[in-house]
Structures are given as C-alpha cells and as structure tokens.
Amino acid sequence: MKKDVNLTVQALQRMPYYLQCLRKVKENGIQIVSATAIANELNLNDVLVRKDISMICTTKGKPKTGFIVDELIENIEDYLGYNNTMDAILVGVGSLGKALLGNSEFNKFGLNIIAAFDIDEDIINQVICGKKVFAIEKLQNLCERMHIHIGIITVPAEFAQEVADKFVNSGIKAIWNFALIKLSVPEDVLVQNENLAASLAVLSQHLRNEMDENK
Amino acid sequence: MKKDVNLTVQALQRMPYYLQCLRKVKENGIQIVSATAIANELNLNDVLVRKDISMICTTKGKPKTGFIVDELIENIEDYLGYNNTMDAILVGVGSLGKALLGNSEFNKFGLNIIAAFDIDEDIINQVICGKKVFAIEKLQNLCERMHIHIGIITVPAEFAQEVADKFVNSGIKAIWNFALIKLSVPEDVLVQNENLAASLAVLSQHLRNEMDENK
DNA sequence: TGGATATCGATATTGTAATACTGATAAAAT
DNA sequence: ATTTTATCAGTATTACAATATCGATATCCA
C-alpha cells in the first residue's frame, strides 16, 4: 500500500539514504529499528526522520522499540517506484552519457535506459553497454511508440534547450538535465538539474577556507 | 580582487548558473546586464540575484543600467577558484569513475584529477583518459607528496567509509562522494554528496503525479 | 507488580532562505 | 529642464524546513 502524498524535495532526497540504511540494518539481521537509530546513523535529527517516515509509511512505530524494518523498506521502495521500473531515453553519448548508459546501478533505483540518441554519425547505430544509439531524428517516433516519459540530457549546454524541446514534443514529462542551463519547459514537465559544477563550487569554497586558516 | 566571505550552499550553487548565463550574454556582445535580466533568464527572483552578486562582487551596479558583465564574470570565476585549479585524486575506476576521469569539462571548473586508485589488479597500472591508475596502497604517499586536498569517491557504498578514512589520513580536506552513504569524517573535512538516486526519486514522484492526473 | 526508560506522535518554536517593500539614483523621454 | 522609468541597495516580511518540547505508551528491569 502506498500513501498518495507529495513530499518536499528535501524529504524526498533523504529517502534513498533511509533505504540504503535500512537495507544495511536488515542485512545485519535486525528486524525492528527506531527513528533515533536511523537518525544517528545518517547524522539527522530523530524527529525529522520520524516525520519523514510518517509521511509515506502506513506502518506505525511502537514506543520503546521502533518500526518494522521490512515494512519501512517496502513502503519506501513503493513510494520511490523502485518496484515498477521507469523506461527512459538518453541524448548525448559523450563521456558522461556513456557512463550513465553503463551504470547498471540505475536498475536498482527503478530506472531503465532503453536507448540513446546522438547526432554524431560515427556513434549512431553502435551498441554501447547493450543500448543502441539512434539518430536524433528518430527520437520522437520511438518515444511515442514506446510511451517513454523520462529523458536524460547529457549534451553540451548550448544544445540542451533544443533537446528539451524535442522531448516535450515527444511526450516526455520528466527531464534529468546534466547540462548547466535552466531549461524552459511547460508547467507539467519537471526538470531535475544535476549540477556537478555546483558541487565543485562547494568543495572549492571549503578548501579555500581551510587553506586560509592554516596559512 | 576577491571578497573573503562565505556564501550559503544554495547561493554558492547558483553561481555556476550565473557564470554560464553571463558568458552567454558576453558572447552576444552585451557589456552591461541588469540583475533583473539575469533573474528572468534563470527563472529566479531579481532581488535574490542582486543579493548574491553583492555578496561576492566588488563591483557596484548602476541604477537603470546594471552591472558590467566582464567584472561579474571575473569576480565569480575568482570566487569559485576557476582560475587556480585544484588537484584531486579519484578512487574507484568503475563506469562512473571512468566517466569522471574522462570528463574534460572539469578543467573549466578548476578541477584537475591527476590520478586514480583501485583495488582491481586488472585496472592497476593502466592509463585511462591520460590518468594512471594506482594500487590503493599508494594513495597516502601520493597525496602527501603532491599536497592533494580533494578526493573523489566512486566506489560502492560498502567500501566508501574505508576510502574516506584513508583520505582523512592522507590530508584530504574535501571529499566528493558519489556513494549513497553518509560518511563520518572529522569536522574540518567537507563531504559533498552527489546523490543520483535522490534525483531519480524526484523524477519518479513527478511522473507518478502526472500519470495519476491523466488516468 | 511497579518504576524507569526509550521511543512515538503531535504541537510549538526556531532559524534561515526567499521574497516583498521602500527610498535613492542614474539614464531616457518629453 | 523636468518628468518618467528602470534599476540598485538596504530593510522588513513571509514562508517553510529543521529542531525542540511535551504528553502518551510500550518494553525492560528490579
């Protein structure tokens, strides 16, 4: 059973951590776990964990003991859609694109990249990590035929908007965007930006502080 | 000249977008830009943009016109450390690790991965994308000798803490962690988590909402 | 059996980031 | 020259996520 609610983005992003933590706990043979224990493991506030759990889990916790691990795992996996995989296509078979195609981990997270697209004649019709690369012109046809709703953008920033437009025309409703640009899309289409440069910025600032302190 | 302040993580993560936007503006031959224009381009609030700029830029804006594009670019690049590259090492030469090694874009963001490490005998001593792969045992020595302060973790979650410990012992002060686990490190070491599963969770939730609406 | 304790769940408080508001200022228009 | 307008910069407000508090309850231990 799945609760039909929407989490905040922050709460949602904590879920995979809960799941990872719970699986580890389960591996150790533990069947009941408290929100406090999870919080300690993940360096989070215990009330926050309890709140997150209560948002999407039908399970109630028992005072003094906690929650049943299996039920939590099942509830979270259900909510995150890990049990019914989403098919996706990827555009831009560069180094990053290839890495994503080759990342078998994604299947565990309910994502299945079924095909890739590019404009480079040398790559088109090749098979990379078991996935065929098509010419970009075939995108719309394939998406409509296969009812694909997730598109991944791993092209350079200057071509990203163009790809996004093609996506929208092909019925894509959720875009995973690795290009450093804010895409313009209709309201009903979600863009999840993966911003590696932003992460580097955070690292850089910290490093600068550290160096300044020790100089 | 660089302002010696700390931005919030959110503000910091907007900086690469400002930069990308400003470079595009500059390419179009525009020399002065208003915070309002940037905000519109990036779908942000104009006051927010102005505040972010004022935090790290010595430049003052002129009413009715805006800011000098070149000065903004220089200030942001300086702040993000794009002009003096940071050397980094990477542990875990799987599909993701290889992708990061091969991503020449990082140099633009001031990151230079100088070497990689793994435990797989078949990979050790190979050269991947111009970077040599060493046995993990050589990590500490190399880091200390080369004064490396940034470490990238692309190993499976179960080995990530072990790698992090090695990093800490080797003088690493900032860790870019692609494993789905919260690492325990001393206070002065920063961990930037790159959580691809979390992004997928966001996509999944949106898709579920879309499907529910149209059923 | 009774008291101590850990946890739950609900509510209140806090803290912080984003947004709105206000007056000042420089450029453009009349 | 004067008015209008777009923008800046500082302050106030709002919104929301994270945290703290409190009573209730189930388990453990004496």
Describe this structure in words.
Two copies of one chain form a homodimer. In chain A, helix 5 links the parallel strand 3 (86-91) and strand 4. The first copy, chain A, is of the alpha/beta class and 215 residues long. Chain A has helices spanning 9-27, 35-42, 46-56, 69-80, 95-102, 139-146, 157-169, 196-213, and strands spanning 32-33, 67-68, 86-91, 111-118, 127-128, 131-135, 150-153, 174-177, 190-193. Chain A has eight helices and nine strands. The model of chain A has no long low-confidence stretch (mean pLDDT 93). In chain A, the strands form two sheets. Chain A has a seven-stranded mixed β-sheet. In chain A, strands 1-2 form a two-stranded antiparallel ribbon. In chain A, 45% of the residues lie in helices and 17% in strands. In chain A, helix 2 packs across helix 3 (46-56). Chain A folds into two domains: 9-80, Arc Repressor Mutant, subunit A (Orthogonal Bundle), CATH 1.10.10.10; 86-198, NAD(P)-binding Rossmann-like Domain (Rossmann fold), CATH 3.40.50. Chains A and B meet through helix 1, helix 5 and helix 8 of A and helix 1, helix 5 and helix 8 of B. The first copy, chain A, binds a DNA duplex (30 and 30 nucleotides) through residues 8, 10-11, 34-36, 44-48, 50-51, 54, 60-67.
